[in-house]
Each structure stands twice: as structure tokens, then as C-alpha cells.
Amino acid sequence: MAYGLARRELRPRVPLRPGEGEKHHLTSLEGLAALSLDALSSVAYGPEAIVLALVVAGTGALTATLPITLAITFLLAALVVSYGQVIAVHPDGGGAYAVAKKDLGRTTSLLAAASLVVDYVLTVAVSLAAGADAFASAFPGLADDKLAVCLIGLALLTAVNLRGVTDSARVLMLPTVLFIVAILGIVVLGLIRSHPVALVGTPRSFPAHESLGFLLILKAFSSGCSALTGVEAIANAVPTFRTPRVRRAQRTELMLGALLGLMLIGLAVLIRRDHVAPRGDVTVLAQLAAGAYGTGWAYYATNLIVTLVLLLAANTSFGGLPVLMSLLARDHRLPHLFGLRAERPVYRYGVVALALLAAVLLIAVDADTHRLIPLFAIGVFIGFTLSQIGLVRHWATQRPERWLHRALINGTGALLTTLAGVILLTTKFLEGAWVVVIAVPLMMLLFARVERYYTAVGEELGLGRIPDPPDRWTGSLVIVPLGEVSKLARHAVSAALALGDEVVAVAVHADPDKTRALQEAWDRWNPGVRLDVIDSPHRSLVQPIVDYVQRVAQDGRQIAVLIPEVEPRHRRYEILQNQRGLLLATVLRARTDVVVCMLPYRLSV
Amino acid sequence: MAYGLARRELRPRVPLRPGEGEKHHLTSLEGLAALSLDALSSVAYGPEAIVLALVVAGTGALTATLPITLAITFLLAALVVSYGQVIAVHPDGGGAYAVAKKDLGRTTSLLAAASLVVDYVLTVAVSLAAGADAFASAFPGLADDKLAVCLIGLALLTAVNLRGVTDSARVLMLPTVLFIVAILGIVVLGLIRSHPVALVGTPRSFPAHESLGFLLILKAFSSGCSALTGVEAIANAVPTFRTPRVRRAQRTELMLGALLGLMLIGLAVLIRRDHVAPRGDVTVLAQLAAGAYGTGWAYYATNLIVTLVLLLAANTSFGGLPVLMSLLARDHRLPHLFGLRAERPVYRYGVVALALLAAVLLIAVDADTHRLIPLFAIGVFIGFTLSQIGLVRHWATQRPERWLHRALINGTGALLTTLAGVILLTTKFLEGAWVVVIAVPLMMLLFARVERYYTAVGEELGLGRIPDPPDRWTGSLVIVPLGEVSKLARHAVSAALALGDEVVAVAVHADPDKTRALQEAWDRWNPGVRLDVIDSPHRSLVQPIVDYVQRVAQDGRQIAVLIPEVEPRHRRYEILQNQRGLLLATVLRARTDVVVCMLPYRLSV
């Protein structure tokens, strides 16, 4: 699922913002093509999830697919109407975290944030797993290597995102349009077809383990709700639309709802009519594609388009997580570091963390899409519910025209998504939902602890209070650790003389002969600065200097240690230089309170 | 094999040096117990290597084991006499690298160094693999998990060495004595035994693939020579002996030779008499142990002692590699960093690198001892040969009394080891020896290139020449990047005022409201220092400051950027602080020539 383009548009390289030029913004149709990818790609696994849930009661139970799909479509309609109101109230977008923070208070916003993080990770995992299923439907030889396919896909996404993608909404349009055409083609051609179904994959037998009771129907319903993930993406991306933004976004949301509903119902009708049951190696969607298009090139093309769209859906998380993390960092709920959204090294942490978590999940479930779906849907439903409740609260506080009517719509949405969430949680608890039940509170705790720490630090630093005036005229001593008399020594002593009231050079030597030679060279150079030589029989460089610094750092002056660094021209030589200086700097910073200064000396080799 | 205690004694924590007290030094017998572990442990895989090489010509060919062992023992005798002379000429020890550097010039010493590195890695791998064989002989259930046993053992050694072991020669004495007793017990009890052999392991059939020709005998001979690895350890460790050092060390070398020869011949006689052939799951040594001791507790104890001694043999490399690396670093052939032998972080690099290389080897051969032996023996024979040739050169130059006689002894040793090395290389080229043929020149090239780089840098830095006098009175400007007005700002501005002639504070803000608030707070504080605010709409912190610094760094003054760092009391909070400062420091150091200063501010939280 996804907050897709909303986040993508906010990414470092593409700071598309409202007002930066209308022509960069989207029309309703463009918005549909660019923002519906996550929601629509859910049809690759949603209907299959229903079928797989029902089939434990035998293939006869599969007739329940259609009514369950109709119930899900009803929920979809409620969500679409409800998100239409979210768009009107939050035209700046921002997603569940921003909404919850504004309307629902601290704890709820932490819940929203935690569920969003879970969501991002699961979007990657589920989309890749479903993508591997689609890929293996086209190439059955890969059926046993789905995990490998997933991990290769993940490595690809990670590499692309580490390099930084110049993403644009428009890149996503073509695959989305192809996907819509392919799926609607399946529905239309499937319905007008009279010849028998083209069978792909190996048949499996399904003995009825249990009867088609109420609980099973609830399970199938909650699994199928995974098809709804992603419908909130448009509401998060209102600023990317062309004016009138709200109207266009609402229209797009409506089109998305209609399209998704049409696809789901159409596929369910085909499943019922053709008695489609799960088969080995191919997905339900691939079976329907084979029924509509035969098993020629169109079948392969459809499966490849589905794979591509799922890969792109996974990719949206890589754009989304850094944005969420920077929002959390600005609220002091994650390390401030992550607030620096434009800094590439920081951005990479998020990419790598996301990739690792998704890889762990994929390996844990052996790339089985349907073991991920319970975990996936819960995070999404938390987000749905919080957005709706926030809106109810908003109406109740602001009381605009017809507020009761509006609150009723959002209240119904909240009730339905809560219900679906609770059903999901109870029916799927042992099948994986427990992971979410543990992970979400742990993350909330983490955010809260980080916030508490920053508050304590702010207290101690006296943030918001005017400090005493700075100390003046304390005087300063600059210590320069040196190994030999050279141009490097000259460079370092010159810089030290500019900075310090007094300068002293210090050398560590294990060998008395070398010590004598150094002292003689120093005397011949005569730079007007004292040289202290420390004896170190055990060939330790760092500890003797630390001891020396601690000895002189007693007299109230500002002490600085100036470490000259030889900087090779080529990065590959870096291991050959600097390392001793860096080691010394690290230890000095950990063990003393002196200023540690690094002075580069650039080589031509 | 090993340079064992020689290196261990030189390790960081135990700077045992000649003259530090005679009671710490070893008598001949103590030296034998402490220094022979590597050489003696070779009997766990040497004889087996012969048997495995011969058996491709059918079990009948195994009668050749005894004559081949006698040939190897002859080579051993030559090596022992030869190393007796090495001890006399190099009483300071130092190993093949030091000897080659002194007597044989640059390229040869690089060859010695590279072969030693190969050796250290292979000592770890072979000893662990053979240890796993011995362990699995006691516990046959582990026969399929030898690789896992090896990797667990490797992890154990790595952990112990990362923590730092307080090693002492005396710790090794008890296991060595137990090992000698156990092996001699096998020989003696085996020979006087009249009851039938206790059979362990599953029998295997050996159809004769080839006839027992000359080539096969050469192969078996060269494989068996792996039993000689480690006999140079005593010559490397002369300084650890009690005076008269040379005499004691020579006596120890002689005892080691006698003991090792006795064991090898004894085991070969038993192999011949009892028609011992390779069996599933148990080693040849374990079969002989079962024959001598039966299959009761003594059998288990023997296998466990063998395992332990092999583990300790592997451990010697972890002590040896850092010493070799520091020698190379002092000769400018490895990064100077590694010359800092006493610095723990540096020492850890060597440990981890060694463990990784050994792990790769073990995984590559699936912990099969006998696929490692060709690689192993070649490095060892290079070392043997270079030591002998160096000595021949020494005699020819110095021409002491009876120099021709002495040169003849070492020349014979060199000839025999060269011969064995060439046989090994040609007969085992495709079986793994090619790895060494590639790795050794590559490493020599690496050392040479590092040396060339350091020479060029020395030229550029004017090492050995007296530089111009340092610049004086250039004046200085200290730039302090700040986020808020706080005690941290006060601390940083105070330090900057002590160091700079002029100080300016600089803040980066994305939000105009915050900028205004900061400017107001600054004016109220009024620290007597100018505040420049840089606008950064894209939430980048680093680039705007770098641009600012580059702008002001034009006027010839010494520029320093002083970055205050909040240091949390607990390490676990470090991710919450400093990171922005570190990022800024890293980029400034890479892209500008200014002095980058870090000022710690320690928190109580």
C-alpha cells in the first residue's frame, strides 16, 4: 500500500512544492495514473487472499468469493467518500501521522507513526512477494526460487535508491495505464468468452478441512481487505494536484474507487463462473489472464506488467520512509539526524534499514505472500481508522455547516475499518498478526523515549533561556602532535600559531635513536616552538598523547590539539594515511574535554 | 604451522623481552613444551595425508607409507640441523621475513612476507579443519557438521583474540605434554599389543584408480611434508630462552626433531602393520588410538586432546599476524596504521581479517583438511627455503671458520625444501596450489605499491629536508555553526573567542519564523559576536555551511570551523546527538582546507 507519490514528490532531488509552477502539477487523470499504482496493484493479491482463505472449506466454498468481494467493495465505497472529506480538510496532505498529530494528541500520533513504519516495511515485502508470484506464473521454472527472485528485486530497488532516483510522477503513468488495461481486459474478455478456460499451472486437490462457517467468512473478508491498501495515497498527495486541488483530488479518489471496485467485482465474478481454485505455480490472477488471453504472448505480457507494477509499488516505500522519519525527527521522536532530509548519507540509512527489515520478513516467511498479508493489513487499517477518527474529532470541534452529517460519514468509515481491523487481528493473531501487536507498541515506546531524552537535554542545555555571556580572554594553548620535521610539520605549526596564544609540538617515539634525530632536525629548523618528546616503549601512539594532554589541561586555558592530516588525492590511498590521526582524534574526543582540530594537507599523489 | 610463541611473546599485553628477568625465560624442556605445539600437532594430519594420497592406487599401495615417512624424516633431520645454524646466526629470532630482509634483499623479503601471510591464514584453516576431524572421531554424530564445528571454533578464537588474551608460554605446556604422552602412548601400546585392533568408523572400499607410480609417490611425499610445518618456531623464538640462549634453543630444536621423527615413524610402522586404511568418520590417528587404547574413555580423551592442541595451534596465528603486519608497516609496506601494535582498535583489524580469510577458505573446501594441505605446505616451504638460502648467503659473505661446511649443510636443506616445494607445486597445482601461486605475487605487488606510495609521499612532504620557517601572524577567523541560543552556544563561543582573532556564529534555518526567533534571542544574549543566518529551503544543513565557509576562506587568514558536540553520558544515546556535527565535519574536511575543530559538551543524561 502506499502514501506513494505524496512522499515521492517530497524527496530530496525533486523538491516539487505547491506553487513551484502549475505545469508540474497533476490533472485528475494524470493523478489517477500516477497515484493509483499502489491501490490498484493490490488486485494482484487481494482476490487470491480470499480464495486461499475459503478453500480450506473445499472448492465448493469458493462461491462465497463474490459476496465477500461485494462486502469489501462496500467498505471501499465508504473509504472513498470518507477520504473525499479528508482531502477537503487536509489539503496540505501529510498522511495519518500529520493528521493524528493535529487532531488526536500525542499517543495516537505515535500509534499512527509506528503503524506507518510497519506499513512501509510490509509494502516492500508484500509487493515483492506478490511480484515474484506473478513472475513465476510467467516462468514456472522459477516457482521454487521465489525467495531468490524477491531478494534480487530487493537488491535492485536498494541499489537504485542508494544511488538516488530522479523520480517523477510521470514515470509511473505508463505502467499504471498498461496495468489498468491488462486487468480490465481480463475482466471484459473473460466475460464475453465462450470457449473453455485455458488452464495453466498444476491442479491441486483441496479436501475440506472445515465447514464454511461465520469465522471462515470473516477470515476471508479480512484477508481480502488487503485489496484496499493504498486508497489513502491520493489524500496524502493533494499538494501535487493542479488547482483547484481539492476538487481534482476528490475526483481522482472517486475514479480510483470506481476502478478498483470494478476490477475486484469483475475478477470475483470470473472466479465464481469459472470455478477458479488455487493451482500450483500460478496465481489466481494469472489463471484468469490465461482464461481471457490464452497462453500466448499476451499472457506473458500481463504477468510481466503485474510484476513491474508490484515492483514500483514496493519502490514507493523507499521514497516514503525518509519523509516520515524526517517528520518524526523534527518532532524530536527520532534522532535529529534524520531531520536532515537533503543529506545523502542520512537518507541512505533509511534505505538500508528498510531493505534489511524487508529482507528479514521475506526470509522469515519464505517469500509467501499470504503469510505476510495479515501483518500488512493491520498497519493499514490502523492508519485508515485514525484518519477517520481524527476527522470526526475535527467536525465535532469546528462544527461547520452540516458537521453532523459529515461526522456521520467519517464515523461510519472509522467503525467499518475498526471492525475489519479487529476481525483481522483476532482471526489472524496466531498467523502473524502478533508480530504487529508486538512491534507497534515497541516502536511507540522508542519514539516516546527519544522524545523524553531530547526534553531532558533541552533542559540541561537551557534551551529557550538566555545563557550567561561567553568567557573572554582565557588564553589558549595549541598542541601539535608530530612525527617528523617536514612540510606537514610546517603547515601544522603555522596553523597552530594563527590559532593559539602558545603552541607546543609533541612527538611520541619508541626508539631513542629516532628521538635524537628528530630533536636535532627540530633544532636545525628552529620554528620558534617547543618540542616535547614522549617516550613510548610499547609502540603506543595514542595513550602517551592523551596522558600528555590531560597533564597540561589543568591550568584553565583553552586547550586545542591540532592534528595534521595528509589527504591523498585518490580515495584508494586513504587507508594509507590519516588513520593514526583519526584514531588519536577519536580517543581524545572520548576521554578529554579539549578542542580537537583536524588540519588537511592535500597531496598530489 | 607456526612461528608460535615467538610471536605470542611479542604481543601487546605481554611485552616479554630479552633481559626483562631470566625467570620469565624458558629452559630447554620448557621451550620444548611451549614451542613445539605447532610442529607436533602436524602429526594429526601429516600421516593421514600420505595415506589418503596413496589409497587411490588401492589399499595395497599403503605399504609405501613407511618408506615415504622415512624420506620425510630424512628431510626433517636436514631441517633440524639447518635450523640449528639459523639459531646461531639469528639469535634475535625474527622469522623468515626478518632473515630475508637482512640477507636476501627487497624482492625476496616481499616473497617471504607474502608467503608468511598465506601461512598464517592456512595455519588457522588447516588446524581447525583437522581439529574438527579429531572432534568428529570422538563424536561421529558430528561427521556431517564439520564445517559448522570449524566455524564455531573460529568464532571462539576470534572472540577470545578480540577481547585480548593474556597468553603465556606456560599455558601451552600442559596440553603439549598431554599430547606428547597420548601420541607416544599410541605408538608404544600399539607396538606391544597382541589383541586384535579395535575398529572404529565405517569401512570404505578403495578400488585402485591408478597404479603406484613415481608421480603418486611424489604426491604422497609432498602431502606428507605438511607434517614438517612448525619446526621453524623455535628458531624464531630464541630471545624467549634462558641464557645460554643459543645452546638451549639448539638443544630444544634437536629434541623437537627427535620427538617428531619418532612419532612419524612410529605411526607409519603401525599403519603398515595393521593395514590401516581411511575409514568413514574417523581419522587415521583416531583408528590408531582405538587400536592402542580400545574405544573406552582413553580414546575420547586422546581425540579431545588432539582437538585442543589443534585449536591452540590455530590460535598462534592470531598472535603472529599482527606482529608481522607491524614489521611490514614499519618498513612502509603496509599502512602505517598497523605499526601501532599497542592500539587495540588496530589490532582488531588484523584479527577480524584473519578470521574472515580463514572462514572463506574453510567454506570453500567445506572444511576438508586434505584439500587445504597443498595450499598450506607451499607457503611453509617458501619460508623454509628462504631461511636456508639466506644463511648460505650469510656464510658466503662472512666466511667464518668452517664456512664452507656450514654453507653445505644449509645448501642441502635449501635444495631439499626447494625440491619438496616444486614437487608439491607441480603435483598439486590443479588441486589448489594455484591459489597460492596467484595470491603470493598479488600480495608482493601490494606491498611494493604501498612502499612506492609512501616514498612518493615522503618526497612531497620533504621528509629528511629542513622546511621553511612557519608562517606567523596570519590572523584567524573561527566560524561556529549553531542551532539555538543555549549553554552549548555559550560554551562554543567562549572556546572560539580563546582561539580566534575574530569569531562569527552561523546558523542554517529553513523556517523564517525560527530564523527570526533565533535572531531575537541572539540580540538579547548579545555575546559580542556576529550571527549570520543562512537560508536553506531544502532542509540541507551541510551544503549551505560548506558554501559559506568557502566564501569567507578567501582572505588569507587561517579559517577554523568549531563544531560543538553534545556528548551524552551513556553511549546508547550517541545516535541521538553529534551526528549532524560529525556529518558536517566529514564534509568540511573532504571539501575545504579549513581547520575543523570539535568541542565536546558533556551532558549528565
TrEMBL record, chains A, B:
Keyword Protease assigned: no
Transmembrane segments: 50-81, 110-131, 146-164, 171-192, 212-234, 254-271, 297-325, 346-365, 371-391, 403-426, 432-450
Main location: membrane
Membrane topology qualifier: Multi-pass membrane protein
Pfam hit, one: AA_permease_2
Keywords: Membrane, Transmembrane, Transmembrane helix
Compartment list: Membrane
Keyword Ion transport applies: no
Name assigned to this protein: APC family permease
